[in-house]
């Protein structure tokens, strides 16, 4: 049957050329969009070190023209804690909540007494004042499953993320090992030897990007005012009432949505969905119209097939198979075009570069084969297979309508009109 369909398509090549060209173009353009969507979906479904469900953040700001008061700022944690529905509060003098503000950067390298290998990386740094931070966000050790605990009496203790541990120590247990602070223009403190006390799950600054290397450091507040508050809540918490009575608050989910909107990812995702929908509708209409016209032109042939014993179900299956073979024929040159675009690095990617060190860190992240999305051949294969599956589904559903109508042809009437 397949050989017969190929002969028919070749015989009617002039009539199907425009549909073939449309399928070829849509396969290439759809893959371009699907490849971008695969990256976003892969990153969104990766596990994150923290849980934002029911977590809110608030900030104390003094009236315009006046200085912030330490006494007023220190009174808010207890007021927040007493509010109905609040479970636990963490007060900080810095912006350590996920999705909030700029991130502090820290240069790290392997300790020379442990390894002669020259590895340097720029990581995100979060200075933590007490363990309420880990409890509120549910940040746990990958080894014990317990909530992270920092020894705040040890100024050199550090908790690192899984990706950072994998970069420095591969599959070894990093606990108890040393890493050095490296000189960098973003770092204003002196060089320090850090001792790894625990490892947490990978940390994502944005949900749609790969996790970033991260280090949690103990911090003593000193004279700084703790005017940033993170607190966990239960289902009885009323955010509107809290904003009226105490401080204006926002959930971390809202902060995530705002951050994605500011960075343009929301617009890009909406555009990708719109373009994909346009492709689906245009392909569907093109396939329906083309095969409707083809079945009307081939009424005599289809009627003769039914006269010779071909069942309506088999006849519609023949037409659907014909459409799929045409799609596969268009997929071969589309695969070559997609490969040329992919190898030329003309696809949309999710990278962010600050300077030479952060570019090197980005390279470390983008080359970490722990994530299959970083394997070029795997990403290319998955993107093309998903594109072909999507297009195949659209083609089958579209051609089913004219195929079903063709199967209802009355042989005597069709042959008589011929």
Provide key terms for this protein:
10 strands; alpha+beta; 13 helices; 2 domains; six-stranded mixed barrel; four-stranded antiparallel sheet; about 425 residues; single chain
Brief sketch in words of this structure:
The chain has 418 residues and is of the alpha+beta class.
Task: Walk me through this protein's architecture.
The protein has 13 helices and 10 strands. The radius of gyration is 30 Å and the shape is elongated. Helix 2 runs antiparallel to helix 8 (265-297), helix 2 packs across helix 12 (376-406) and helix 9 (299-307) crosses helix 13 (411-417). The chain has helices spanning 2-11, 13-44, 70-82, 132-137, 162-169, 239-245, 252-262, 265-297, 299-307, 312-343, 356-366, 376-406, 411-417; strands at 55-59, 86-92, 104-110, 120-128, 157-161, 178-181, 193-200, 214-218, 228-233, 249-251. Mean pLDDT is 80; it is low at 185-190 and 352-357. It folds into 2 domains: 1-47 and 265-416, no CATH class; 102-220, no CATH class. Strands 3-4-8-5-7-6 form a 6-stranded mixed β-barrel. A 4-stranded antiparallel β-sheet has the order 2-9-1-10. With 418 residues, the protein is of the alpha+beta class.
How do the helices and strands line up, and which of them pair or pack?
Layout: H1 2-11, H2 13-44, E1 55-59, H3 70-82, E2 86-92, E3 104-110, E4 120-128, H4 132-137, E5 157-161, H5 162-169, E6 178-181, E7 193-200, E8 214-218, E9 228-233, H6 239-245, E10 249-251, H7 252-262, H8 265-297, H9 299-307, H10 312-343, H11 356-366, H12 376-406, H13 411-417
Parallel strand pairs: 4-8, 5-7
Antiparallel strand pairs: 1-9, 1-10, 2-9, 3-4, 3-6, 5-8, 6-7
């Amino acid at each position: 049957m397949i050989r017969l369909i190929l002969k028919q398509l070749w015989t009617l090549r002039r009539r199907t050329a425009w549909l073939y060209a449309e399928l070829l173009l849509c396969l290439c353009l759809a893959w371009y969009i699907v490849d971008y969507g695969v990256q976003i979906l892969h990153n969104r479904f990766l596990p994150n070190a923290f849980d934002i469900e029911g977590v809110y953040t608030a900030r104390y700001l003094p009236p315009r023209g006046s200085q912030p008061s330490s006494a007023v700022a220190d009174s808010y944690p207890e007021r927040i804690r007493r509010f109905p529905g609040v479970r636990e509060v963490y007060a900080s003098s810095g912006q350590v909540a996920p999705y909030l503000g700029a991130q502090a950067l820290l240069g790290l390298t392997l300790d020379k007494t442990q390894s002669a290998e020259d590895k340097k990386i720029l990581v995100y740094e979060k200075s933590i004042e007490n363990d309420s931070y880990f409890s509120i966000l549910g940040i746990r050790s990958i080894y014990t499953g317990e909530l992270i605990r920092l020894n705040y009496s040890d100024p050199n203790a550090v908790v690192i993320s899984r990706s950072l541990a994998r970069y420095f120590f591969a599959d070894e247990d990093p606990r108890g090992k040393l890493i050095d602070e490296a000189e960098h223009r973003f770092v204003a403190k002196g060089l320090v030897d850090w001792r790894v006390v625990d490892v947490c799950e990978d940390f994502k600054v944005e949900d749609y990007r790969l996790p970033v290397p991260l280090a949690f450091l103990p911090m003593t507040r000193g004279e700084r005012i703790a005017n940033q508050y993170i607190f966990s809540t239960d289902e009885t918490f009323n955010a509107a009432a809290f904003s009226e009575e105490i401080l204006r608050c926002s959930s971390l989910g809202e902060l995530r949505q705002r951050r994605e909107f500011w960075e343009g990812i929301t617009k890009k995702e909406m555009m990708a969905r719109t373009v994909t929908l346009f492709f689906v509708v245009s392909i569907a209409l093109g396939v329906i119209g083309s095969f409707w016209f083809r079945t009307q032109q081939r009424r005599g042939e289809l009627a003769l097939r039914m006269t010779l014993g071909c069942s309506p179900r088999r006849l519609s299956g023949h037409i659907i198979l014909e459409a799929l073979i045409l799609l596969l024929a268009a997929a071969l040159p589309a695969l070559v075009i997609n490969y040329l675009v992919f190898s030329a690095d003309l696809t949309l990617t999710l990278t962010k570069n600050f300077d030479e060190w952060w570019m090197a860190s980005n390279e470390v992240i983008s080359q970490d084969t722990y994530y299959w999305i970083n394997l070029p051949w795997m990403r290319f294969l998955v993107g093309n297979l998903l594109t072909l599956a999507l297009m195949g589904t659209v083609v089958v559903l579209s051609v089913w309508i004219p195929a079903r109508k063709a199967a209802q042809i009355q042989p005597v009437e069709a042959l008589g009109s011929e």
